[in-house]
Each structure stands twice: as structure tokens, then as C-alpha cells.
């Protein structure tokens, strides 16, 4: 059985790893470099790890498992009637095809946006690192996890770091939690400008509704745009991302989608953790085993400077503090979500409890 995976990110590589040996696996990747860790990019920019530490798998790793890795190869069209993937380097027949094309960084839409960089790929990271070493300071737009990871690591490395965020709170959390995270990051040296709208950029800085903020290096780190073009061109249904059902099936027969490119129930994953967990479940489904991915349950673990934050389950309702580091969110009497500050072990325990409906203590 020929399994073709488009995309060598965490979703694609996890699926290839799990099914190698059982299927004839081909991974098609447009970048010309092996798989690298995006969560480690801000550590690399900060100078905490060398470039080679970003690459967990060597070319031999793929060869030993019999995975046919086609780098520098862009997937252009899925010929659904012939069950063939058309790439920039020829056609590849498939029995099952998995789109794991991920997402790209959302670009700002303000005048002077050419003066603002984005962060998604290793090339983006290299450019930011080079500019940072010249400038010694950085202005980051965004209040989500990518912005805060970058801010925390660069402040820890001794750079001057400003975060500009138009929202009132960080990570979409409530006021209390956002305040705790802000105070921790301020302690590490990050300067915050919340409820501040960027209106335009020039070489020297950023125009905002709260005044001009000086700083030549500006990086936009808010939001992602799912890479759905391959699916759309091939006549596969897409909304914001590629539309999938409970079993990762797209509207085309034997074509599946996982990770940041996929949309289920109006939601796009957005984390490496979700992409990897989806790949594990899809591997079982492709083997013919019964398995389910719980799309309604989301959890993500982050580290901002040295401060860890876990956001587990649904955290949109009113919450109450269990202790000084743990806030639980309820729907009626039932705990449905939890945020854990600074304690990863506790976070793992509570993730299991929330997921399995066990008592919280
Ligand atoms: C700076 C940064 C920090 C992050 N930190 C964390 C974190 O701490 N924790 C966490 O869980 N997540 C984190 N994330 C998010 C995480 O990296 C993504 O959610 C994850 O990479 C998604 O995996 P994916 O396999 O769906 O797609 P991607 O990783 O985007 O990989 C998709 C691959 O498909 C390739 N591709 C696209 N189109 C084509 C095509 N037509 N033909 C061939 N190849 C194609 C792309 O080149 C890419 O290599 C971070 C992201 C960034 C940028």
C-alpha cells in the first residue's frame, strides 16, 4: 500500500515514523532541509542551542526506516480520479494520501509591513537572528504563545524586548492569569504594551494608537494561515483550513488531512502537540484499527523564559483558583479545563484528570 504524505513537519514525520515498514511511505516536502523543530526556533535565535540541535532526524534515520523522503519537492495537484500526486518533480501514485502542509505565519496588513518580519521557518529564524545580533533589540507584535516564547527567550538572553499586543490579555486567557504571566515575563525583562494597535511601520519603528515605538527590528508573531491551496486547487473542500471529519477524511476519497492545515468543527489545531497526536490516531485508522481523536479537547504546554504554562481543555468559562498556581474552569459542576502555572508535573496529572473526568484535587 502506497502512502504519500505531503509535509515533513511534526504531523507528517510522526505519521511516517508510525507507518514505516507496514506501508510504502513517501514524504514530499517543499523545503530543501530535513525536519526541524519549530518550538525550538526561539531558543536558536536566542543563542541557547546551535543550529544542528534543531534537527532530531538525520537522512539516515529516514533511510533506515525505508521512508522515501523527497526534499525540495512541491506538491502541486492531487489528481483524484487517477489517484496520483502531481509534484514539481513528477507524479507519484498513491493508495492513501495525507495532506500535512501545516500553516504559514499571518502577515500584518498595515502600511509599511515590508519593515516587519514573520517567524515560521528556519530561514525566517536565521534572518531574525542575524538582524537581532546587529540591533540588540526587538519589537514583537502579538500576545499568543509564539510571541511570548520568543519574547521570553530573547529577554533571558539579554536583549531588549518589547511586546505590542492589541488585546487586553495574553494568550486569550482571563485577566488574573494574563497578569501572572505578564508579571513573570516582565521579571525576565520583557516590556509590554497591551491594548495597543499597530497602525503602520517604517524602518525606525512602529506607529501605534498609543504613540510611536522606536525599534528597527520588528517581528509579527500573531496567528497562522493554514496551507490549504493544494486541496483547494484539487477541488477538495476547505474553509479556513482543509475540512475534515472525525476520522481526518477530506471530501476526496482516500485523502486525509492532519495538523495545522486541517479544520474540524470550525477549529484549526495550531500546535505541534495536536499535529503529533492526530498523526498517532490517523496511523491507527489507516491500519484498520479503531481509534478516535477528541477534537473538543485541546491542551498545550509552553515555556516562556523559565516559566511554564499549560492550557488544558476548555478555559473560556469562569474559573476559580484551586491553589496559587492552578485555575480550574467549570461548565455547570463539571471541570472542563485547567490552566497550570509553573508546574509541569502537576499539569500532566491534571490533563489526565480533566480528559478522563476524574476528580480534581
Ligand atoms: C516559533 C514557533 C514556536 C512554536 N512553539 C510551539 C510550542 O512550544 N508547542 C507547540 O505545540 N507548538 C509550537 N509551535 C507550533 C507548531 O510548530 C505547529 O503547530 C506545527 O509545526 C504544525 O505541524 P504540521 O505538521 O501541521 O505543519 P508544519 O510544521 O507547518 O509543516 C508543514 C510542512 O509542509 C510543507 N509544505 C507545505 N506545503 C507544501 C506543498 N505544497 N508541497 C510540499 N510540502 C509542503 C512545509 O514546507 C512544512 O515543512 C510553534 C511554531 C513556531 C513557528
Describe the structure.
- This protein is α/β, with parallel strands linked by helices and 361 residues long.
- It has 3 domains: 2-104 and 224-287, 3-Layer(bba) Sandwich (FAD/NAD(P)-binding domain), CATH 3.50.50.60; 107-220, FAD/NAD(P)-binding domain (3-Layer(bba) Sandwich), CATH 3.50.50.60; 306-356, Enolase-like, domain 1, CATH 3.30.390.
- The protein contains 9 helices and 26 strands.
- It has helices at 10-19, 41-46, 59-64, 122-135, 145-156, 175-187, 229-233, 272-287, 344-356; strands at residues 2-6, 24-28, 68-70, 75-79, 84-87, 90-93, 96-99, 103-105, 117-118, 137-141, 160-164, 190-193, 198-202, 205-208, 211-214, 218-220, 224-226, 242-243, 255-257, 262-264, 267-268, 299-304, 307-313, 319-323, 326-331, 334-341.
- Strands 3-2-1-7-19 form a 5-stranded parallel β-sheet. A 5-stranded parallel β-sheet has the order 9-16-10-11-12. Strands 22-23-26-25-24 form a 5-stranded antiparallel β-sheet, with helices on both faces.
- The chain is globular, with a radius of gyration of 21 Å.
- The termini are far apart.
- The structure holds flavin-adenine dinucleotide.
- Flavin-adenine dinucleotide (FAD) binds next to helix 1, helix 2, helix 5, helix 8 and strand 22.
Amino acid at each position: 500500500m502506497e502512502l504519500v504524505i505531503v509535509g515533513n513537519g511534526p504531523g507528517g514525520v510522526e505519521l511516517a515514523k508510525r507507518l514505516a515498514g507496514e506501508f510504502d511511505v513517501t514524504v514530499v516536502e517543499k523545503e530543501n532541509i530535513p525536519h526541524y523543530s519549530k518550538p525550538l526556533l526561539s531558543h536558536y535565535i536566542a543563542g541557547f542551542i546551535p543550529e544542528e540541535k534543531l534537527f532530531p532526524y538525520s537522512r539516515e534515520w529516514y533511510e533506515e526506516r525505508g521512508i522515501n523522503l523527497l526534499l525540495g519537492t512541491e506538491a502541486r495537484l492531487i489528481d483524484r480520479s487517477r489517484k496520483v500526486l502531481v509534484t514539481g518533480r513528477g507524479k507519484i501514485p498513491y493508495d492513501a494520501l495525507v495532506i500535512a502542509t501545516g500553516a504559514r505565519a499571518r502577515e500584518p496588513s498595515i502600511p509599511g509591513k515590508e519593515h516587519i518580519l514573520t517567524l515560521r521557518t528556519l530561514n525566517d529564524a536565521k534572518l531574525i537572528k542575524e538582524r537581532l545580533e546587529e540591533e540588540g533589540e526587538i519589537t514583537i507584535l502579538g500576545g499568543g504563545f509564539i510571541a511570548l516564547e520568543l519574547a521570553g527567550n530573547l529577554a533571558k538572553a539579554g536583549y531588549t524586548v518589547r511586546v505590542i499586543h492589541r488585546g487586553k490579555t495574553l494568550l486569550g486567557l482571563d485577566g488574573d492569569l494574563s497578569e501572572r504571566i505578564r508579571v513573570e515575563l516582565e521579571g525576565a525583562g520583557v516590556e509590554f504594551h497591551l491594548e495597543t494597535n499597530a497602525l503602520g511601520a517604517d524602518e525606525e519603528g512602529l506607529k501605534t494608537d498609543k504613540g510611536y515605538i522606536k525599534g528597527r527590528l520588528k517581528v509579527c508573531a500573531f496567528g497562522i494561515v493554514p496551507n490549504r491551496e493544494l486541496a483547494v486547487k484539487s477541488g477538495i473542500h476547505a474553509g479556513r483550513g482543509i475540512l475534515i471529519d472525525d476520522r481526518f477524511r477530506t471530501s476526496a476519497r482516500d485523502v486525509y488531512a492532519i495538523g495545522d492545515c486541517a479544520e474540524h468543527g470550525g477549529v484549526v489545531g495550531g500546535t505541534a502537540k495536536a499535529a503529533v497526536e492526530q498523526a498517532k490516531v490517523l496511523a491507527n485508522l489507516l491500519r484498520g484499527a479503531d481509534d478516535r481523536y477528541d477534537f473538543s479537547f485541546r491542551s498545550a504546554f509552553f515555556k516562556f523564559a523559565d516559566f511554564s504554562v499549560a492550557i488544558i481543555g476548555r478555559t473560556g468559562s469562569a474559573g476559580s483558583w484551586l491553589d496559587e498556581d492552578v485555575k480550574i474552569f467549570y461548565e455547570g459542576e463539571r471541570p472542563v479545563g485547567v490552566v497550570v502555572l509553573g508546574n509541569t508535573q502537576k499539569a500532566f496529572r491534571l490533563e489526565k484528570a480533566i480528559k478522563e473526568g476524574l476528580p480534581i484535587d
